[in-house]
Amino acid sequence: MAASAAIPQFPHDFLWGVSTSAHQIEGAVDERGASVWDAFTAVPGHVKDGTTAAVACDHYHRYREDVALIRELGVDAYRFSVSWPRVLPGGTGEVSAAGLDFYDRLVDELCAAGVRPVPTLFHWDTPLALAEQGGWLRRDTAERFAEYAAVVAARIGDRAKKWITLNEPAEHTLLGHALGQHAPGEQLMFDALPVAHHQLLAHGLAVRALRAAGVTDIGIANSHGPTWPASSSAEDTEAADFYDVLLNRLFADPLILGRYPDGIGELMPGDDIEADLKVIAEPVDWYGINFYQPTKVGAPLPAAAATEFSGLTLPPELPFAPRELDGYPVTDFGWPVVPESLTELLTGFRDRYGDRLPPLVITENGCSYEGIDDQRRIDYLDGHLRALHRALEAGVDVRGYFVWSLLDNFEWAEGYKQRFGLVHVDYTTLARTPKASYAWLREALRAQRAHQAPQA
Ligand code: IFM
Fold this sequence. Notes:
- The chain contains 15 helices and 15 strands.
- The protein is of the alpha/beta class and 456 residues long.
- The chain has an 8-stranded parallel beta barrel, surrounded by 4 helices. A 3-stranded mixed β-sheet has the order 6-8-11. A two-stranded antiparallel ribbon has the order 9-10.
- β14 and β15 form a beta hairpin.
- α7 packs parallel to α9, α8 runs antiparallel to α9 and α13 packs parallel to α14.
- The site of 5-hydroxymethyl-3,4-dihydroxypiperidine has 8 residues, from loops.
């Protein structure tokens, strides 16, 4: 049955938003410095449909139209990312006046539309110049990131009040540096762990830089999902625990508890991990969760060549192997749709971290489906909002929800095939067409507000 727009009533100050990222929508590559993604997508075979983000949604030139769509949708906030190489083409040193001006204009446009700007400082587009000097394998990149954070905050921090340091450092480590299926295409396997540590350090240093610039509302966006062991056998539960550490604890434990999970700290680079952990655990005002799906995980399969999973090819030497999750509908990406696992994830976070857990915000949630009459996206959003509401009822402190994504966009190694937008983008004409899910969300938000409006 089609979902109605009547989702449960959320608290009156709950923050509703939509999200995007710079590399996936901006285009205008010739008007900024190069990033690792420009170099990666130039290599044939790296992106499944052979495309690049050179034009993408051309948001750089069409941001006014996109802000109008956000305003009409009726959300409170827009989460976008700032392209580091657009602001600092060489990653450090000279600032691009044109690059900073773009974000200044975007923030002005959002404020004029009554939409709160929520910048993310890093969504995977490392300046190529820094990558060529070692990128995230070098500690120095964390210091450069903090300088970049200060530059951006000095320009838009007067109007942008809520900030995100990094997006999904786990994916950037795993896909970009361990498996090589994202930029910069490194296949370092477990030697990629320094990338995790340096991103965490960059986060902590950026929190300090943002606070020094007067920003008081700071979070991070990490991807998380419940891990379900393939069976109760010792081999499967051990493999699932290992995967769970990588996805759900490698980044969250140091950020929230100020320590790495057992056995990980010793593998990290640097002379004084304890001192670094103090920087990493610099208190945040909230913790962002990007949620898409749970994962069933078991021991490596005997004689497996490689596992195809969620669009990835996982090598057999990994100490775990994800399994298909049967019995659930799937998105066009093949990701299982299991809304109740969002409630499980959130209550699990509360149980694991207790009083140490900052307030949570769902910084991404969404699905890839073809078509403008996207009833399946409506059902997905409806189901996940109900699951989120159940977590609130269970006492989990969740303060906001951002749909991924406002627009169909460049979905990394998948190219343009996977469409996550509430708004359809025709990549030939760049015309934007709101989908049925856009209209549904607008009505759902109107209903929330009508319910909250004081009675005459
Ligand atoms: O498109 C991505 C986004 O960049 C990061 N989170 C997951 C989304 C869907 O794959």
